[in-house]
């Protein structure tokens, strides 16, 4: 093939080429897209428009979004129990069922509800798992509960609220809105102003013998109220009052409710500490509580009996930290030792004898010196003798000061 060979362009054929193998059988050969050279010629084949469309279809299919049927389902259902309504102070339950056709990958987010005229609390117990058949398929879900306790005799409008959850392997966040509900709240006839419950039990206890008290003693009066079907926060307060001669110290009420998942039972305990201020007989007044029985639809009057107390004067007691009286302490006899006295006597005698001996020697030396320098004339007067003695003393002192010191010889 020479350098100047000519090039021929032709349209490619979509029909497969046929060739005969060594055994004489015909086989199909796919058309070539590209350059071909035969008998000294080069041939370039360009794909047609239909081929380009066939190559682009798979890419377009991959780029399309997933159909709506693959998105996870999310449904929320709500209902009230009991649906007919409740009386004032009686709890109702708002049940919230959340379903999905796949699975939950996180906890369900529930809001805190606030409705005027009621106390709403989300249940603290573990929510159970539920299932249901929806649209011919099995859906799984979780059930949550709100406890609604009305405090006024009026219908309560529960607004719609949103619930969010993450569903499926992609952890897709979905949100659903509930439907608004109405709770019918009534006050039974004849129960106006009374505490409404299914049953109310009152119990009174004291922690001391009230017939043997003294002034200054203290004791506690405790009243426990138990209401079946009513939370503890709705049990009314008990007024214990004051009594002359007793100092009262009331304590804050203690509230306790039954465990989650069990029938509602409220317990409220009232306690007052009393201190006896004076001797005498005292009476703690009785307590009356009126309540409405939802089972018998009647008014019930509960009564706590009065408490009688007898106190006497406290005996005089000595001071707990009285100071002891000081008793005169006799002087200890002085012990004398004859050995110590003998020792002091000997030392004193030695000192006296030494001073006397020194005085004698000093006197004798002065006398000898005066006679040594005195003239032989008998006309010597005492004044002259004193002068001579003074000169002698000065000469002796000078002689002592000017005495030559021994100088060691160099070895």
The topology string of helices and strands comes to EEEEHEEEEEEEEEEEEEEEEEEEEEEHH
Mean pLDDT over all positions: 77
Global shape: elongated
Nearest-angstrom radius of gyration? 62 Å
Distance between the termini: 134 Å
Number of strands: 26
Residue share in β-strands: 35-45%
Query: Residue ranges: pLDDT <50 for 5 or more in a row?
Result: 1-44, 61-69
How does the helix and strand content classify structurally?
alpha+beta
In this structure, how is the largest beta sheet organized?
5 strands, antiparallel
Proportion of helical residues: 10-25%
Q: How many helical stretches?
A: 3
Structure, described:
By secondary structure, this protein is of the alpha+beta class. Helices cover 17% and strands 36% of the residues. The protein has helices spanning 49-63, 338-373, 382-401; strands spanning 17-20, 26-29, 35-38, 41-44, 74-81, 86-87, 92-100, 118-122, 129-134, 137-150, 156-158, 162-167, 172-177, 181-183, 185-186, 195-197, 199-206, 213-214, 218-228, 246-250, 254-257, 265-276, 280-284, 287-293, 298-304, 307-312. Strands 5, 7, 8, 9 and 10 form a five-stranded antiparallel beta sheet that branches. A hairpin with a 2-residue loop joins β9 (129-134) and β10. The N and C termini lie far apart (134 Å).
